[in-house]
Amino acid sequence: MAILKAVCFLCVAVAVVEAFDPYAPPDTTYKGEDEVTLKDVVFLIRSQSTPWHLIKAQATKADIEQQARIQELGTAQVFLLHEQYNHIGYWTLLPLIPRLHKDFGSYKWLFFCEEDSRVSITGLLNVLSRYDSQKDWFLARGLHDKSATIIHHFRFIEDTSKFKYPDFEAGWLFSQSLLKSLAARWESEEHKADFAIDVKHELAYYIWNDGKGTSVTHIPEFCAGNVGLNLDFMEDDIIAEGISTSVNEEPQKCVTAHPSKLPMCGEPVSQDDVLFAVKTCEKFHKDRVPIVKKTWGQYAANIIYVSDIEDSSIPTVASGVPNTERGHCGKSMAIFKMFRSDAKYAQHKWLMLTDDDTILSVARVQKLLACYDSNDAVVLGERYGYAHMAGYGYDYLTGGGGMVFSRAAVNKLLDSGCSCGKDEDPDDMIIGMCTKRYNIPVTHSPLFHQARPDDYSSGFLQHQTPVSFHKHWNNDPIQVYQDWFMKDDMQLFATMEQADYTKQHDSKDEL
């Protein structure tokens, strides 16, 4: 491939990286008759303001602009959505439709992607030549559910395969005509407060419009998980040299890409840096807690089980808050206060709140946290939203997949007066309201999951390295842990043992 041949000395020995080269010639076998140029397309990246995520989005923008520059295609119009729109629910997309039409309605195509996505401009233009932008087209890598799932409101329970929704990480497009139709429809409707849970499904469901609208057209050239990690930035002259010396290059099927591996941000954070706090109650001490201890809990060097009562057999830490059947705001606030004030926890830079039926990888949490600065107010997990459709909503982290807080975030929340109206208030939503009120960004990672593996499209999970899942109900949590997380945690434990052995051996040598 053009880039890789010219700079092989820079390449990491990961074979899957060679699966995508944005400068490789596209497969023109299925080229259409429409003439599409770069000036017909605007690129919109679903970005975030948190430093690590902003860096990734800027790299995607720079890559698109560089391709246009090197191949003399013109100037690429690329925008980061969080910078373009000062709207807290911008990431849910539907409330932005009128603004998107106003700002970009003159373009034939709107290409959307995630902060880590990559796209071959020439490959994309080749694909778009098959479609008339003056017709309603919703182009994407189509996903469908294996079975009806709670995160999609059990829709299409008779046959989930008949409804496709876009794989955001592979990129997706609105035609000019579709955007115009959606904007007119949105402006004519009233919009009530509702939840944003899985935006890609909710967007497709709105556009489908009970069968009266537009369905996703699956584009086989849109790919995700076809690279391990994105290549680092390279100067124009190095890339140009690779292109000029490339011979007999095979056409490339995929025109988009997204990495499948966890990001590499240096060494994982130390186990001493992270405190895992498992929220539980007496009725689950003999049911759920033993499963945590048999699985990921045994690899967490610092873990507490916070309950309504003390139980020396576990042991638990009593929160001082009575158990509530719904909502655990009082318990979570008690944990925040423990984390901040108790000298036992002073060394920890990060707090991860989990439910007692959360299933996760300790090793992956530590590796992921290396990408963030605990001195910043970081609130990290799977982002949901409430009331964005109505225009006055807020973001929050859904608790089941685990919520991560830097010490700086905990301090800011408590110092700002964040509190519960009642102990049984939903902790995740109350914390979300506080983050909006006190201007703390909620950072989304698609690697945290509120539901079971079976609740997600296999096409979506196969290009991920997940950090967590949730629920013991109707599945075997020990098997889920073994299938998804155990290998990485065992490797972490082996590395820790080796490090301890080496440290002890070196100490003896010094004596």
Secondary-structure topology with pairs:
Elements: H1 2-6, E1 41-46, H2 51-70, E2 77-80, H3 81-84, H4 97-104, E3 109-114, E4 118-119, H5 121-128, E5 138-140, E6 142-143, E7 165-166, E8 172-175, H6 176-188, E9 195-196, H7 199-208, E10 217-218, H8 236-245, E11 256-257, E12 274-279, H9 289-294, E13 303-307, E14 316-318, H10 329-341, E15 350-355, E16 358-360, H11 362-369, E17 379-381, E18 383-386, E19 394-397, E20 403-406, H12 407-415, H13 427-437, E21 442-444, H14 458-461, E22 468-470, H15 477-484, H16 486-510
Parallel strand pairs: 1-2, 1-3, 5-10, 12-13, 12-15, 13-14, 17-21
Antiparallel strand pairs: 3-8, 4-11, 5-8, 6-7, 9-18, 15-20, 16-22, 17-20, 18-19
Describe the protein in words.
- With 511 residues, the chain is an alpha/beta fold.
- The chain contains 16 helices and 22 strands.
- Strands 14-13-12-15-20-17-21 form a 7-stranded mixed sheet. A 6-stranded mixed sheet has the order 2-1-3-8-5-10. A 3-stranded antiparallel sheet has the order 9-18-19.
- Strand 18 and strand 19 (394-397) form a beta hairpin.
- Helix 4 (97-104) crosses helix 6.
- The chain is globular, with a radius of gyration of 24 Å.
- The N and C termini lie far apart (55 Å).
- Residues 1-18 have low confidence and may be disordered.
